[in-house]
Protein 1
Amino acid sequence: MSFQDLIDPKPKKVFLLANEAIARAALESDVKVAAFYPGSPTSEILDTMYLLSGKYDDIKMEVSINEKVALETVAGASMGGFRSLTSMKSVGLNVASDTFYTLGYTGVNAGCVLVVADDPHAHSSQSEQDGRYFAQTGHVPMLEPSTPEEAYQMIKYAFNLSEKFKILALVRTSTRVNHQYAPVNIGEVKRRPFIKNKWNDVKGKYFTLSDTARRLKSEAIEKLIKIEEDFNSLQFNKIIDGEGKVGVITSGVSFLYTLDALDNLNLKIPVLKLGTTYPIPKKLVSTFIKNLDKIIVIEELLPYLEQHIKIIAKDSDCGLEIFGKETGHLPYVGEYNVSIVIDVLSKIFEKNIKINYKEILKRSEELKKVIPKRFPVFCAGCPHRSTLWSLQQAVKGTNFVLNNDIGCYSMLQLEPYNLTDMMLCMGASQGISSGMQHVLNDKIISLVGDSTFFHAALPGLINAIHNQHDYTVFILDNSVTAMTGQQPNPGSDFGPNKVVEIDIESVVRGIGVQNILSINAYDLKNNVELIKQFLDKEGVKVIISHGPCALYNDRKKRASGVPIIPNKVSSEACKTIYACVRDFYCPAIELNMDTRQTEIQLDVCNGCMSCAKLCPVTAIKSVGSELK
Amino acid sequence: MKSYNILLTGVGGQGLMLLSQILGDACTSKDYPVVVGAQHGLAQRSGSISAHVRMGDVYSPLIPYGSADMIIAMEGMEALRYIEYLKEGGVIVMNSRIMHPPLETAPIVKNRQEKKEYITIDQIFQQLKKVTNKIISLDANLLALEAGNPRTENIVLLGAASTQKDFPLDSETLTNAIKRNVPEKTIEANLKALEIGRRQAEI
């Protein structure tokens, strides 16, 4: 898409990412408040709303400190009578779940939509969590799109649904839906003027305890019974007619894999595509299975649909055979694709496969043995690379435990670093360190980025100070939430609105940390000794390493016309000592196979100068210094 | 419409996502069905990335193994890394440039006395030729510089790809999509890159 298409109020057909389509649908639905904490694969919803809020000033848009506060912010706006949107990744809803579960009881007022995105394959998450169970256990309805077009339509429907039943509406996606682009027929943007309400005009009751809780729970369940009635005939649940007594029930992106697989095998069997997966439209499912002998349930992650359908089949007493994960026909782990679906269908229907996927994969693995892995790495110029170089030198030969957290620095667990002992979830570096320092003799080191520090590490750190624990905290402050696309966090000096920059050092000092060391990430040689000394101190000590995210900073430089000047290795001076690359692993530095000297790729290097500082014979200089 | 599947591969930071946008936008402008499965997620540069561009009557955002009509690889090794997607005899349009990742350099530096070597583009060709003989290899880095902007490697390769038999998008459609999707001040260099890539492939 071009951004012009997205902000243009006129209807048209545009090529959109599903996440962009979700934001456009929210704009057309007259959303007034949107709040998010970024998380893959939903971050582009935030990014797009950020851009839209710059154009449509009646959108109050916030990048929140965490998902819980984001959900509370949009729920508050809904209670106040205005439509609101939030989105988060699967594990983000864990953070927001306390609020989420109670909202399921209290309900909301104006349309309030929560997009939650699962990440089958754990591409960029710590687990393959299945978000569908949130809807069922939280008493809220759930829609599941397959395509960008459907995501767009479902968001619009979800706002109406939420408003009609005064209930939070969940739209559940997965990575291959969020990150799918396709043409979308977008509609007209009509915004109503934003004039604040009076509480007396919109007032509801949003508290729950004891008998109120029991009453609200039964009301929520009654709402869901009515919603299920609507879902039985909703356009998002569709039966594709076919021949024979064997059918497929599927949803989300698995529906698309199924269609491709059926085409490929030239099969025309009945398919039920579920667009609403809580409550499941039982009547529709019963109608579908009534005339069938066998059903194959195709869904990623846990056998959620499979188990629900087993219950419906039992109630209908139709003797249906159900194939899925529990029968061993489909995997529990990893994301699905066309080949996996073809494989299972070809077995059940005894069809020959045109392409032997297993053979292809086997041959490819063989062919690929010659190339090295290319894992995600710290970008050229990343301040973390410099901080971590210093840390590696400072701890050499000592006994330590490294408790990591969620952010770019999570990559420390990968080759070539292999430097992480623990990494669970946002903020866990603190609490786990607290537990370990009670029982281990080693030095306990925790790493946390600025965004994660604010998001969930702060309570753990306060707890550690209050209880007089003994471990070291590295706060890697690069001024943005880098890994998800450099969104602002409370420590940033920018945001969709005017912001106050929260100073991490003042916060840490304010909660009573005595030993605070503030270092410049790029002063990497001098930092080694400073870190060493600090690690020997008693109590909770905090090292704040400063250096802006290279991607963010380079973009800022480009926008303001500041040149990015790379470095160069002098072939006269280089003595192939490799201090610039050993333990430093910068993707801009390669070797020249003829001279065995290092070389710097000019279009990758951003001139951070760290490698130059590491070179004992000063063979690395800025290209700029030669130009002078 | 007959389907045409292109797998884009490369290294983060080379403009692969923009290339997938241009292709998708071009199809949309012609009312061709298109779906792109992009790999977003981690924002970091220099990792291995891919995007599945599927034109015509297909449904899912992922190309089945052994079914891509074409791989456009923005980097030499990345042409091989996703080879399971190429159909038998499919086309590979690739950059001859190799970007050696830190994981390849690290063991060479660590065991310097062994004088280990980097992988070469010829070794990669050798492997690729076991799958197809339709390989178009360009020094896109050099050609992008010739176009006036080193960041137009992606469009140089698109130009070369567009000369291939069955490639479903014509020159005018691509030109318009480029104009709509690249920053305004880089339009001229990008169009020049398209032309250079096309000419190079026809030689």
Note: The radius of gyration of chain A is 27 Å.
Protein 2
Amino acid sequence: MLEIRYVWELPVRVSHWVNAVCVLVLSVTGFYIGNPFYPASDTAAYIMGWNRFIHFTFAYLFLASLIVRFYWFLFGNHHSSWRMFFPWATKSGRKAAITFFRYYTFTGPKLPYEVGHNPLAAMAYAGVYSLFVLQLVTGFAIYGQFQPDGFWFGIFGTLLTWIDVQTLRLVHHLTMWLLGGFFINHFYSAWLMDVKEMNGVMSSIFSGYKFVERDDL
Amino acid sequence: MQNPETRLPEGSVPEEILQQWEKRGVSRRSFLKFCSAMTATLALPVTMMGRVAQALEADSSPPLIWLEFQDCAGDSEAFLRANQPTAAEIILDYLSVDYHETIMAAAGHQAEAAKHQTIEKYKGKYLVVVEGSIPMADGGVYCTVGGDSALNIARQVCGNAAATIAVGSCATFGGIPAATPNPTGAVSVREAVPGATVINLPGCPVNVQNLTATIVHYLTFGRLPATDQLARPKFAYGKRIHDNCERRSHFDAGQYAETFGDPGHRQGWCLYKLGCKGPETFHNCPTVRYNEGSSWPIQAGHGCLGCSEPQFWDAMTPFYRRLPQVPGFGVESTADKIGLGLIAATGVAFAAHAVASSFRKGDKLEADQVVKED
């Protein structure tokens, strides 16, 4: 008998989609800022100006979304807890990770049965959240240079004396491509699991519900 | 000096002072220009002009020692060869420059003796300008003057000075001698003499206007101007070049020169895509410019190299590209090419996985629950 379980709470779903939109918008505008690939027709245009404005606005939105998600790491249900980032810390987590890894590499026949994140995905999200934080730190450090007496320079000014800003810029740029690679992995894995697990994982990130058979757990 | 201009409007320069400078061969116009330029460079209100003029009158002018270590004398050249000699003349006339290897008449033991005399007599009162980096490797043997190492000289001269003004990118951050692999172990004055009072005026060369203004600030207020976290005066290094650039409107619009000499370049468009480092360089070049305000690199059509930033020779290269090279990849591999390669490889790998997975049978978890529809 299939149960309908409420797995992803509202803050998780909202921050997931806000993050997705932010990463998309920030990547497109950020790519333009790094390499303005289409020219302006005349001096009255404001193409770089708008790209930068949108980039900075979505950076703040992204920051807000991550603050919400970090709050929910502490106060959400166990599927959204920060503990899910460390599946290798428990014996059952390690076992499930190995089973999943073997399935994924065609060396094992079956999937582990998971209600929330599968252990490999959880580890990938630990990496992705690290990249998110890296993007925010490098991004706001570069951004803060426009006003050396301002808030962001106050926070990251010291960082800029340790690491030169060109290195930060390169890291910011390369991390965008790493997040692009993550997106391909993430989208494909979700699709694959939707087909193979048959528990509605794709729709769960819209609705929060997954179909779980208690006997299989 | 007493205050004779109480009846004069605020900021005006007393007549006697102007006459005194005229006697020394500096016209009233030149002197007033100098005072107003200094007041403006220091971002002081115009009412301070009188005070600046008076400061250059005081009897107790501090002696100045100008040291050169691992340098090219470019900062000395910049200081001495301003096309209107006024600024340098006024300062040189006012300060007693007791030691400057490039311009002093004395030589050998005589010159060294004069230097030591100044240090003894004016201990804690004289000013030092340092040009060039200080080598630390192998006991400092790579730069010696008069038989003593640069490090020893710097410790002795800067350590006993009222203040040290490090000029140029070498004295402030190590500059080109400190670029990788830095064979001489070159360091800045601040690193070589940690206890000394040092203000940094980076640039390759230093902008004379900023050096003069720093000295004038010291003479007027008795202390060095306010500095940032890299010990650079905020009046000169408080804003990015990019934020005061005359080509900024082209940047915001999205108009960029693609190559040197193309139509965009000829129309004065933004040099961002030619590797201009204005967006990461703090300096007042766009407002003060070089050579008595005649021009500066971006006005002349060349992107900023970021010469006044720490370790610019390593950090700001390649000079004609936006981003640094990715370590471990070839010269022609830009970050974007590598990123696109990464995306393509990921896409291919996952597409292959998708094909293989679609042929996989019997691995669906809830296959027993499926009811086929007609």
Note: Chain A touches chain B through 53 residues (CB under 8 Å).
